[in-house]
Amino acid sequence: MKTAPKRWLGIAAFVVTSIAVSSPAVAQPLPNPVEVLARFAHEPGITAVQSAALEYAGLADPDLDAWSARARWSNAIPRLQAQMAWLDQRDVQLRYRETFSTDDEGVIVADPNQSNLADDARFRTLFSLRASLDLGGLVYDRSEPIIAREVRSRFGQRDDVLRRVTELYFARRGKQAIRHLTPIANWERHLELELEIQAQTAQLDALTGGWFVRQLARPKTGAP
Length: 224
Description:
The chain has 224 residues and is α+β, with helices and mostly antiparallel strands. The protein has helices at residues 4-22, 33-38, 46-56, 67-73, 144-181, 187-207, 211-216, and strands at residues 79-97, 100-102, 108-110, 114-132. It folds into 2 domains: 30-72 and 135-216, no CATH class; 79-132, no CATH class. The protein contains 7 helices and 4 strands; from the N terminus they run ααααββββααα. The strands form 2 sheets. It has a two-stranded antiparallel ribbon with strand order 1-4. A two-stranded antiparallel ribbon has the order 2-3. It starts with a helix and ends in an 8-residue tail after the last helix.
């Protein structure tokens, strides 16, 4: 009868141990992606970064489609041509005349000398002004093929800039989120992520002409 309590105690210990081993560990709640990204809400948004990049690249003109219309309407303005000419002509003549005659006694007599000076100056200035209109240009301007090529080229450049900026922006934001979720004890991974973030920051700053880093240097407002 004295061995029964020991047997029951052994069975109870086995049951408790089995429950402890078979019970799964309490799972840690997964981080909320919205809350993680909200930590960087103080940084410039993608739209502002794209606008700054287009402005720096000289591609922010929103009126590319209106270039042809403006070229046509320019023919409604008359084209003026002005000319000016002048004539400066001056004729100077010096004439010398001496007359000899004889008197009744046959003596040769010289008349007083005559010197004539003639100064003929003529000045004339001509002006002309002509205005012309190319009414056919209101329908089709000869520069439209050139404008069309330039517009296509600029739209292609805009797409390249927007694609590059968008890829860099969200790649950088992804690295920021991963760095935030990486345990601080893994310092090598933290260092690797920090270098990648700085490299992408430098590229975005170059594409915006220094605007991006200036915005990051502003005091943080609204950061969690």
